[in-house]
């Protein structure tokens, strides 16, 4: 373990870097939903959606699903035998944010970054309390895999960043510069730390994430790399929708930016579903606790087709709106001609505050 890396022993200085999601994987990590104050009806509908996502990803890579002990038998019963169920306690099921960011080395080694996690804002806007089990997940996965773990005090969630694997990272100011994350760090500090721990050399800053995104604007819900020099961006032509101004602002920045290799980015628009809102029947199935974010009838959800997972042979996308599902799938088929696009009914995941990318974390091929 590398508990206190110096300037000469940072992951980047040692030759490690974070690969792009579209690079080959050895595995995908997920967690099992169960908390009744976030997932309706004891998480049973959400569990069915998680099973469908895991099955689709497992077509071309190993899938690990971490489960609390009291749900182990239930999860093992619901998940197919080829999906590996492991006891890995968590406070909730957002592996993208509570899990490790994996790194690879040219000599074939795998390592991870162990970010600090405070449940998307700690006691200043965080989504639940406590988050002690979530903080131990990265340590446990490092032990299970026997890989080096680079510890950093930087508060950051995996959904807040997206990389092209060639030196470029996209993130949002809304999230990384939020005072409930790293109040004493500015852009230059963050860029230096991201370079040290991820091996990137260029950061493209988008001002805001999707409208009403409770993660304080995670970039993986707004835009992502689909190939070197190519980005997918959630989009709406409805100028009366608050999302329009956010997406237009992001489009202008992305089209005028260059990546770490000097390329101008090509931006592909994905239609926004909805807008989508929580129904009365959906809100009524969630337990109300003071330690978690309430789910209120009529609340707008930050639905986005950009929140997909790029697997080895598949792209697993959310089905969210019959009016736009097919169009979004057709666009993704054009962007990923070598992969099969699998659309999963993902409203139950969205009701919990995120989507398919949020519940997954790729383990790159070392």
TrEMBL record:
Keywords: Hydrolase
Transmembrane segments: none
Region annotation (Disordered) ranges: 273-298
HAMAP family membership: Agmatine_deimin
Gene Ontology molecular functions: agmatine deiminase activity; protein-arginine deiminase activity
Pfam families: PAD_porph
Cited Gene3D superfamilies: L-arginine/glycine Amidinotransferase, Chain A
EC number: 3.5.3.12
One GO BP annotation of this record: putrescine biosynthetic process
Active site: 358
Keyword Transmembrane recorded: no
Family: Belongs to the agmatine deiminase family.
Highest taxon of the lineage: Bacteria
Protein name: Putative agmatine deiminase
Reactions the enzyme catalyzes: agmatine + H2O = N-carbamoylputrescine + NH4(+)
NCBIfam families cross-referenced by the UniProt entry: agmatine_aguA, PRK13551.1
């Amino acid at each position: 373990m590398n508990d206190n890396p110096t300037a000469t022993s940072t992951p980047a200085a040692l030759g490690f870097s974070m690969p792009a999601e579209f690079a080959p994987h050895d595995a995908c990590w997920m967690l099992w939903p169960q908390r009744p104050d976030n997932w309706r009806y004891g998480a049973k509908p959400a569990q069915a959606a998680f099973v469908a996502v895991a099955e689709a990803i497992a077509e071309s890579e190993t899938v690990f699903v971490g489960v609390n002990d009291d749900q182990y038998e239930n999860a093992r019963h619901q998940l197919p035998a080829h999906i590996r169920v492991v006891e890995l306690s968590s406070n909730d099921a957002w592996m993208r944010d509570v899990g490790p960011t994996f790194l690879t080395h040219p000599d074939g080694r795998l390592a991870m970054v162990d970010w600090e996690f405070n449940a998307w804002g700690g006691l200043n806007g965080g989504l639940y309390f406590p988050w002690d089990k979530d903080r131990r997940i990265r340590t446990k996965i490092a032990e299970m895999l026997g890989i080096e773990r680079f510890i950093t005090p930087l508060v950051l969630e995996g959904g807040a960043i997206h990389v092209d694997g060639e030196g470029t990272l996209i993130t949002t100011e809304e999230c990384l510069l939020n005072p409930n994350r790293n109040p004493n760090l500015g852009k230059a500090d963050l860029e230096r730390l991201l370079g040290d721990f991820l091996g990137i050399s260029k950061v493209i800053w988008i001002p805001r994430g999707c409208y009403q995104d409770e993660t304080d604007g995670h970039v993986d819900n707004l835009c992502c790399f689909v190939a070197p020099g190519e980005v997918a961006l959630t989009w709406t032509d409805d100028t009366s929708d608050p999302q329009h101004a956010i997406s237009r602002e992001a489009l202008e920045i992305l089209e005028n930016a260059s990546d770490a290799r000097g390329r101008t980015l090509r931006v592909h628009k994905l239609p926004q579903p909805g807008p989508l809102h929580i129904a009365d029947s959906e809100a009524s199935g969630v337990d109300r606790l003071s330690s978690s974010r309430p789910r209120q009838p009529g609340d707008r959800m930050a639905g986005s087709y950009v929140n997909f997972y790029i697997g080895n042979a598949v792209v697993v996308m959310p089905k969210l709106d019959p009016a736009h599902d097919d169009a979004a799938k057709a666009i993704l088929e054009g962007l990923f001609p070598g992969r099969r696009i699998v659309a999963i009914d993902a409203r139950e995941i969205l009701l919990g505050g995120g989507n398919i990318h949020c519940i997954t974390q790729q383990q790159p091929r070392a």
